[in-house]
């Protein structure tokens, strides 16, 4: 297909979701937060009492998720779950289910279905490497672990959740290590991805850089 995709991959709490959503808005493109699908699978498992290592049952859950994305909010089984999805508990669960090949396969077609005219901006770990290998623009967006912990801390506080900075730093590091070490679709910068280091960049600067990379390829 010639529908353009901008793939933004990177570690947790790097700000890639915020940047991707703003790039999508600037271009009038659709937006897919692929991490939300792994988080939704973990949340659905928690609610149904499915163990986080029961690969077959989790793949089945992932395939049949009753989910709705609308106006920046996410619904699971008809209930708004956007805030609960962002907690570290669910992020950690997501990272566990995401290491299972059958779960990744179950979510593949669902992700590709978001590729609709006039274009798609998506963020995750393997958007440029596995899900949309023909993406027009591939970005690896990162920031130092300390900065990422700060960003997640702020985000959680703004949503009214309790958070502890040093615990967050530890949890993020643990999650990144697991995401990088897994055998399927590990977190790493692809050879064809542009590195965008945002530790000292504002959100607007990061958005402008992604837009410039995309426009330079047209
Ligand atoms: O990006 P986010 O923090 O929401 O992702 C949650 C978890 O889902 C990640 O830690 C990662 O293990 C997994 N994930 C993935 N592939 C993606 C997006 C997320 O494995 N494309």
Automatic annotation (TrEMBL):
The gene is cmk. It is found in: Cytoplasm. It comes from Sulfuriferula plumbiphila. This is Multifunctional fusion protein. It comes from the Bacteria. Monomer. Belongs to the EPSP synthase family. Residues 6-214 form the Cytidylate kinase domain. Catalyzes the transfer of the enolpyruvyl moiety of phosphoenolpyruvate (PEP) to the 5-hydroxyl of shikimate-3-phosphate (S3P) to produce enolpyruvyl shikimate-3-phosphate and inorganic phosphate. Signal peptide: none annotated. The lineage of its organism: Bacteria, Pseudomonadati, Pseudomonadota, Betaproteobacteria, Nitrosomonadales. ATP binds at residues 10-18.
């Amino acid at each position: 297909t010639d529908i353009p995709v901008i793939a933004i991959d990177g570690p947790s709490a790097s700000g890639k979701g915020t940047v991707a959503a703003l790039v999508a808005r600037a271009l009038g493109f659709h937006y897919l937060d692929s991490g939300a699908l792994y988080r939704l699978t973990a949340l659905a498992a928690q609610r149904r009492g499915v163990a986080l290592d029961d690969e077959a049952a989790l793949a089945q859950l992932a395939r049949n998720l009753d989910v709705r994305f609308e106006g920046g909010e996410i619904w699971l089984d008809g209930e708004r779950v956007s805030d609960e999805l962002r907690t570290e508990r669910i992020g950690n669960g997501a990272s566990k289910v995401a290491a299972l090949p059958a779960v990744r396969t179950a979510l593949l077609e669902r992700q590709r279905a978001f590729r609709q005219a006039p274009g798609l901006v998506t963020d995750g770990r393997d958007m440029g490497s596995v899900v949309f290998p023909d993406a027009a623009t591939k970005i690896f967006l990162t920031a130092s672990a300390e900065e990422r912990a700060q960003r997640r801390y702020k985000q959680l506080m703004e949503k009214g959740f309790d958070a502890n900075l040093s615990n967050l730093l530890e949890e993020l590091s643990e999650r990144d290590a697991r995401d990088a070490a897994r055998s399927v679709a590990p977190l790493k910068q692809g050879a064809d991805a542009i590195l965008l280091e945002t530790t000292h960049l504002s959100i607007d600067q990061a958005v402008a850089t992604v837009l410039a990379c995309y426009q330079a390829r047209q």
